[in-house]
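Holo prediction — adenosine-5'-diphosphate.
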Amino acid sequence: RGNNAEREVPFAQPGSLTRVYAVASGKGGVGKSSVTVNLAAAMAADGLKVGVVDADIYGHSVPRMLGADGKPTQVENMIMPPSSHGVKVISIGMFTPGNAPVVWRGPMLHRALQQFLADVYWGDLDVLLLDLPPGTGDIAISVAQLVPNAEILVVTTPQQAAAEVAERAGSIAVQTHQKIVGVVENMSGMPCPHCDEMVDVFGSGGGARVAEGLTRTVGAEVPVLGSIPIDVRLREGGDEGKPVVLSDPDSPAGSALRAIAQKL
Ligand code: ADP
């Protein structure tokens, strides 16, 4: 469709009952996508109607982690998203041939996101999760414009350097007037396989530091929603397309993620 025929984003309309969470991080590789898919799967398992937009356009990885290997179909002029484990999901990777890279500038990203939000038939969702790219780039700004009511969920590791960057990513909420729902600390130590003692591979305290910093910056309480340990089962779950909250819900990472999902 032409640019003049843009549909409105249903989630941004007054009276929309869908809670929208934009999952953000400062750096890549901190587990933002893993957290997104596990929260989505946990909420769907709890009976909620859940959708995920893979808005990490260049680094899209959500469909694989959710095991969503179906293709979107077109019905009239709407896109029907595939679903997996009860979660509807859309990703740019579903529209690019093979593993071709996405080589776009900012305005194209905005347009893609607009279509993911308005031209995809989501139905009545209880929750929509957006997996943002790391950092404070075009997409974060587009999300704020297209869905101003989206609340930001910040993922960080315990490491000082990662926490500083994560705090910057979260603090765009001040400019965009968005609410920050909380901070999730991921990779918070690893139980030693021999003696079970916790090894703080990435240090400690990053989640609390980000939450305190953001509380000061935005002038409203930003809580730490939970900490997730390093857990091989979480990585395996992502690789196999079955999030750990489903494949091993009582594992340390699985139970931590389920507890966070309960708070949203
Ligand atoms: P991001 O979205 O921030 O780039 P990913 O979710 O893709 O990060 O995670 C990066 C890698 O780290 C993935 O291979 C993922 O399986 C792994 N990973 C993330 N969190 C954990 C964890 N708590 N324990 C073990 N592996 C993890």
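READOUT: Residues 25, 28-34, 61, 186-187, 228, 230-231, 234-235, 238, 253 surround adenosine-5'-diphosphate (CB under 6 Å).
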